[in-house]
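Because discrete structure vocabularies remain unfamiliar, it helps to consider an illustrative case, giving the amino acid sequence and backbone structure tokens:
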Amino acid sequence: MDLPIHGKCVGLLIKRQRYRCCECSQTFWEHLDHTIDERRNCTKRLLTYIEKQSLKRTFVSISEDVGLSEKTIRNIFRDYINRLKETLRFETPNWLGIDEIHMMKPRCVLTNIEERTLLDVLPNRSKETVVGYLSRLPNRGRVQYVAMNMWQPYKDAVKTVLPKATIIIDKCHVVRMANQALETIRKQLREGLKPKERRGLMHDRFILLKRHKELTEMEKITLDLWTENHPSLGIAYELKESFFDIWESDTRQKAFLKYHVWKSKIPKELQSAFEPLTKAMANWEEEIFAYFDHRITNAYTESLNSLVHVINRLGRGYSFEALRAKVLFTEGLTKERGELLGIDISTMIEKLEKGEL
């Protein structure tokens, strides 16, 4: 098989000479190694074409285009990616970010926080998978800080492979839990209201989740009316706001004291809603308050979440391996400064939004 022409599959009939060795009488065919890949029964230029197209299209569509089976296309893609893996080596970062993104299911994402680049996307977020990746990092002793969310397997993996690195819980994942507690209280309140009363809380979720300083004058008036009629909602909103204020503390000690004052102000009837947050603060105290000593956050990788809908749309017909390869190996996405630093996230987002990836 050869390159398709005008959307039609092309096959070549090639005549080649058969030889017999004068010394041993063994026969052999004329070699065509410079033009033909005999393992795949296609020309080398078609092989190159399939490799490039496999990062842009589904295997089924390429199969229909070139006349080779989908299994053959998949095998070509696999060999191509394995070859790229051997040649692509990213620099080990000083500040490592471990987060996750949903590509069909939760996947572990590794980033270089200083350079704002993507290093890899792992098939799952288990301890074994993360340990395997970290163990393969060249010069892994250079990793000083690791920012992550509150997922125990990440912590266990870092403690196993990078025992000297300081673990810092990304503050975005912590303050988000205050919003979730407020959301729990809001839903519980609405369940006990009559339809007419419920209509009086139209669009309440969007106002309650906003910071008070970001509210418009009309939204402030609306919020005051709600909290006057539903005091527990007002208390929950104030607790959410004061929890966010803790993260503006300039020292670890001040933040620690503010948190315990904040915790003591939670009314008994609201404690169950805030329990996931207070429990997480107790279990991850050292790693959470480490943020105030080293103000490192993995927040910019939250921009990866803006890719979720695009990736899911592209993912119809793709395997995880194909999507991962599309992100890591598409030309023009790598960021380098002497050494390869990773996949530039802003460039990747730009290309995805333009439909170029």
